[in-house]
Specification:
Layout: H1 21-24, H2 33-52, H3 67-74, H4 78-90, E1 94-97, E2 106-109, H5 124-129, H6 132-142, H7 148-152, H8 175-187, H9 189-195, H10 200-214, E3 220-223, E4 226-229, H11 230-237, H12 242-254, H13 262-291
Antiparallel strand pairs: 1-2, 3-4
Helix pairs in contact: 2-4, 3-4, 8-9, 8-10, 12-13
Length: 292
Amino acid sequence: MTDYFYGGQADLFSFYRLPKALFVDPRFRGISAESKILYGLLLDRMGLSVKNGWTDDTGRVYIIFTTEEIMEALYCADNKATKLMKELESCGLIERKRRGLGKPSLIYVKNFISESSEPRIQNRENHDSGTVKNATLESLKSRGIKNNQNNTDLSETDPFLSGVAAGTETEGKDDRTLHQEYFFRQFRFDALIASYPDDEDMLREMLELLVDTVCSKRRFIRIAGDDKPAEVVKAQLMKLNGDHLRFVLMCLKENTTQVRNMRQYLLATLYNAPMTMHSSYAARVQHDFKTG
């Protein structure tokens, strides 16, 4: 049975943000709730893209979010994931740029507040001379005017996959330190070590391997013999949580074959954990039922 929240315990968790406008704006009333949830996931991923500088030649931020990742995040089938993406695309909330050659599409998460596709104007004078609708919104934001709507509907997603808590000091910290802190919080690392004191060294090796990989400047990263786009690998690793590390520990302990390159083996196991953990546990349950 689940327990109650006490005091400020709710602040211990990271949350996905679903813009209130998606539920109150008449333009989006015909969109399914699942599509709105998916938009929230895509919007959350924008924090990672901004952090990594994933922008095109015109400065527009894009993300990588594959069909497999949608299936894993929403626990749905391939056709459902495809349908939800088409729904978001048809209403103009996202735009996909297909690259071919087996590469994942670039996804542009559209700004649902403004319907204009013109580039944002950077100074106050041009704000005041632009179109009324866009200039009003941008002028309010650039001049620091706050109201209730700005605090709820227009709030930007938290940086770093919403992993950096409000008020956390990040200035002066390098990229590696920020990623270490992110994973430390994401895994609740102290609690994890307390639960597995005999495996502390292995857990720290996993942490360092993850930080090394997501901070890599290479365009492609090898996973189980395949060179995958670095942005895809990093996005997958950033989804890991403490349960995934427990699963990887279990796999390592049960492996009886000789591993020649432990680092590559460990990286592949971590990368595949979100896609294999649930099916592995389900297979174990079925096996236990059949064997009594």
